[in-house]
Design a protein that fits this description.
Number of strands: 6
Structural class: alpha+beta
CATH superfamily: Outer membrane efflux proteins (OEP)
Oligomer: single chain
Strand order of the largest sheet: 2-3-5-6
CATH topology: Outer membrane efflux proteins (OEP)
Number of domains: 1
Distance between the termini: 69 Å
Number of helices: 11
Radius of gyration: 41 Å
Low-confidence stretches: 1-36
Strand content: 5-15%
CATH architecture: Up-down Bundle
Length: 455
């Protein structure tokens, strides 16, 4: 047996070893591919719904909106009467009810004092304050819509990013398989006496290069999973994988229509406009502090604990000395005369705040117009890039097939074969990445114009 093996040709032995080496190199990545397909499948709709339900940004914006709703209720409370009841412990030692205490002896009566007040008119001050709070509430609601839009966008982006790296990992493993097959071919050519050692060395270097690229892509895949968990507002790490569901296409409108839609529907600009109206009403509210204030009041008094010698209570009253209940009511008109210039300075400050909000709104408008224009240009550029990527990948595949045939026959050297293989690997990765970059740019454009997404 050993003697027969010793008589086998050396090229045949080398070719057999090279064949089994190539098979093992190919099978090892296949196990990794099978492990990569494992995980928790998740679709785009589930990701977005989970993000909207539990992400802190949405919760914060919702709490601010609810708090502002209560502030509107506080402002509306001025329309209703206010009723108070006080119990006072008095200490008196001076003239009382037109008389003088005997020997100026102090007394300590108690007094029950119910008071009812009702504002009749503040000549616009209350009206402007309530309007300001309502416009601020509208702004808070638009900020909640903007937070939901931002969270939805980030969830879509994280989903597309995860899908992109899943495809890149598959492409990287396919590249590693192709490099392993190329190494096997180089070893077989060397075993048959058609190749040189340099071809095998370069094929091994290509295999190591693709293996390193695969490791990096797998690391990027794990980071993308962490980004997806964060975008969903969750803490526990889950090995999610996408289900391959396509993204709903966005509007294919010209730039003018996209810009007009954004300025009409983007919650960010709507919130800024509501803050403009709120600040304008704050100016009117401060200005009306110079106006009179007319209110109705009614007040009652019930006093007890006054000695009978002062109250004139009949004998046998037990020394309580109760006074009969009394009350007073009427209208109160208060007019501010001079408050040290406070209203003047507050009015000017409110005007400057209103001007600041107006300029902030204008800045938001300019940013939206700029961002829509840039994303529109990026979208058109990416579409052209993707078309060129597809052509380049097809040409690289055709060139690889031609070079591999000539390489197998010994008509080209290993450098040419490796270059052809590298071009296929590079063009495949670029095509995969650019497909998802196009989807991400469309996500950004939909977010920028405030386009509602249906799933």
């Amino acid at each position: 047996m050993s003697a027969r093996a010793d008589r086998l040709p050396a090229p045949l032995i080398g070719g057999t070893l090279a064949l089994w080496t190539g098979i093992l190199i190919v099978l090892l990545p296949l196990r990794a591919v099978k492990a990569a397909e494992e995980g928790v499948p998740v679709d785009r709709k589930t990701v977005v719904q989970a993000a909207l339900a539990s992400h802190p940004l949405v919760s914060i914006a919702y709490a601010r909106s609810r708090a502002q709703t209560e502030k509107v209720g506080v402002a509306l409370a001025d329309y209703y009467p206010h009723l108070t009841l006080s119990l006072d412990q008095l200490f008196l030692n001076s003239a009382f009810v037109g008389g003088v205490f005997p020997d100026y002896q102090p007394i300590a009566p108690e007094m029950l004092n119910p008071t009812l007040t009702q504002d009749i008119t503040t000549f616009g001050r209350r009206h402007y304050r309530i309007r300001a709070e309502r416009f601020l509430l509208r702004s808070r609601k638009e900020e909640l819509a903007e937070a939901r839009l931002a969270v939805s966008f980030r969830a879509n982006l994280a989903y597309d990013q995860l899908a992109m790296f899943e495809h890149l990992v598959r492409g990287a493993r396919k590249n590693e398989e192709d490099a392993a097959l190329h190494l096997r071919m180089a070893q077989e050519r060397l075993a048959r006496g058609f190749g040189v050692v340099t071809d095998v060395t370069m094929a091994r270097l290509l295999l190591e290069k693709t293996r390193l690229a695969r490791i990096r892509q797998e690391n990027a895949l794990e980071k993308a999973r962490a980004d997806l968990v964060y975008a969903m507002g969750r803490e526990a790490p889950v090995p999610y994988r996408t289900d391959g569901s396509p993204r709903q296409p966005g509007p294919d409108w010209p730039l003018s229509e996209l810009t007009a839609f954004a300025l009409r529907h983007r919650p960010l600009i709507l919130a800024a406009r509501a803050r403009d109206r709120e600040s304008e009403n704050r100016v009117d509210e401060v200005r009306t502090r110079n106006y009179p204030h007319l209110s109705l009041f009614a007040q009652g008094f019930l006093l007890w604990g006054v000695p009978p010698t002062i109250s004139g209570a009949p004998p046998g009253s037990g020394g309580l000395g109760l006074f009969l209940p009394t009350f007073q009511s009427g209208l109160a008109l208060s007019v501010p005369i001079f408050v040290g210039g406070e209203i003047l300075h507050d009015t000017e400050r409110a005007r400057m705040e209103a001007k600041k909000e107006s300029e902030k709104t204008r800045l938001v408008r300019l940013r939206i117009i700029r961002n829509v224009r840039k994303l529109f240009d990026d979208l058109e550029t990416q579409r052209e890039t993707l078309a060129l990527d597809q052509v380049r990948y097809a040409h690289a595949q055709e060139n690889q097939r031609l070079v591999e045939r000539r390489f197998a026959r010994g008509l080209v050297d290993g450098v040419t074969a490796v270059d052809a293989e590298t071009e296929v690997l590079t063009s495949r990765e670029r095509l995969i990445a650019d497909r998802f970059r196009l989807s991400m740019i469309q996500d950004g454009l939909d977010r920028e114009i405030g386009y509602p997404r249906d799933f």
